[in-house]
Amino acid sequence: MAIGQNIFQLREQKGYSEQQVADALSLVITKYRSLELDASEWTVKQLIAVADVLQVSLDEIAGRSTTQTESSSTDLKTLLQHGASFEGRTLTDEETSAAMELLHQFSLQWQNLRDLTELIRSDSNLVKKLQDLKIVNAKLDSEAIVRALDKSLIGTYSI
Question: What range(s) does the HTH cro/C1-type domain occupy (predicted)?
Answer without folding.
Answer: 9-61
